[in-house]
Structures are given as C-alpha cells and as structure tokens.
Design goal:
CATH superfamily: NAD(P)-binding Rossmann-like Domain
Structural class: alpha/beta
Distance between the termini: 18 Å
Number of strands: 9
Shape: globular
Number of domains: 1
Order of helices and strands: EHEEEHEHEEHHEHEH
Largest sheet: 7 strands, parallel
CATH topology: Rossmann fold
Strand order of the largest sheet: 3-2-1-4-5-6-9
Length: 217
C-alpha cells in the first residue's frame, strides 16, 4: 500500500501524539497545524504548519489536495463546567475545518465524536452532534468515530467501573447500551483511526464507527 497524505489538527493532544508516530511508521506523510509555540510538542517526522486551528482560512491553502483530513481538536478532560468551551473550541474548530477541507478538495474527513445517545455530558454531546450534522451537510466523504471514554496514561479511573460493564453486558436488556458506552484504549483508537485513513469512506458516504468496531480494530 502506498502512503497517503494525512492532514491532522489537534496533533499535540493525547490522541494526536499517539496517532502520528503510527501513521508515519505505516509510511504515510503527515502534515499538522499547531499554534505558535506548540511546535515542540509534536512527534518528530511530521510536517509542521503554524496557524490558528480556530480559523480555517489560516491554514486552508496548506492542506494537500486529495488528502485525508483528521480532526482531533477538543477540550481536554471534558466536564459539565466546560459547556461554553465545547462550543467555542470543539464546535468552532470543526466547522472551520470542514470549510477548509472542502476548499482544499480533501478525499475524506475523519472526526472523533462521542457515543450517542448518552445519559450525561449533555452540552458535550450536543456540540459533537452538531459537528456530525455539519459534516453530513458538507457532502464530504467522512468517517466518524464514536468512543465514549478513551483509556490511557492518567485516564484510567473508569477501570473501576469494569465490573458494572461486565454485568450490564451479561444482561440482554442492557447489553447494547453497555457496548455502546464501553471503554476503549488509546491503542484501539489509534488502530481505528489508521483504519479510517487506509480504508476511506467512499464519495458521499458518512461512515459511523462505534465502540464495538473500535474495540475490534
């Protein structure tokens, strides 16, 4: 398989720093957009574009045509007190990214959303659902990943909930909800994102990848 050109926003975050080395190892070419001063937080080997991730016009001209656009920007450690940030950062960045991606003629847009519906984090889920609607309205071929909680360094407290998940998955009435809102690892997310890059959605398709599919990556 020949390497693909991948454009990544949110590259300095936890997911981006894990994804980029794997993409590079697989032979893909990675270009990232970061704010000035954040260049040193990027994995080595990727191309760096200094721009404003909340202003698509600041980087649209640097997106390679026919590339895969992977959007990873999001407020860290989301909680209900960050409701306005979900709109000002998460939703704003993805709407800007969609416009930039369309202008550049990318072949696919990859977005990390969140499992839906869910009983908590209403504002967070609303912002992500609006982002998904904007992706569909754009006409871009897209893959939308819907994890619930991604485990990793410093993100392991939900492991205490595993007995509850096992019980819910054992009961037919709650099995589907437990699987939909299950925990995934950062390694599983990286493999699922690489799978989205390497097996892109077809023209006009919006593909949803839920927790069971992410776990199976």
């Amino acid at each position: 398989m020949s390497g693909r050109q991948v454009f990544v926003t949110g590259a300095t975050g936890h997911m981006g720093r894990n994804l980029i080395p794997e993409l590079l190892q697989r032979g893909h070419r990675v270009r990232t957009v970061v704010r000035a001063g954040s260049e040193g937080r990027l994995p080595s080997g990727c191309e760096v574009l200094v721009a404003n991730p909340l202003d698509g016009q600041s980087y649209a001209g640097q997106i390679p045509a026919c590339s895969t656009f992977v959007h990873l920007i999001g407020v860290t450690h989301p909680n209900p007190s960050k409701a306005q940030q979900f709109r000002d950062v998460d939703l704003k960045s993805v709407t800007e990214a969609i416009g930039a991606a369309k202008a550049a003629g990318v072949s696919q847009f990859v977005y990390v959303s969140v499992a839906q519906p869910a009983p908590v984090m209403k504002a967070y889920i609303e912002a992500r659902a609006e982002a998904e609607a904007a992706i569909r309205a754009s006409g871009l071929a897209a893959t939308i990943l819907r994890p619930w909680y991604v485990l990793g360094p410093g993100r392991r407290w939900p492991l205490a909930l595993l007995p509850m998940y096992w019980l819910m998955e054992a009961i037919p009435a709650t099995r589907e909800r437990a699987q939909q809102l299950g925990l995934v690892t950062i390694a599983q997310m990286v493999r699922a994102l690489c799978g989205a890059v390497e097996s892109p959605a077809t023209a006009g398709e919006v593909r949803i990848v839920g927790v069971p599919e992410i776990r199976a990556s």
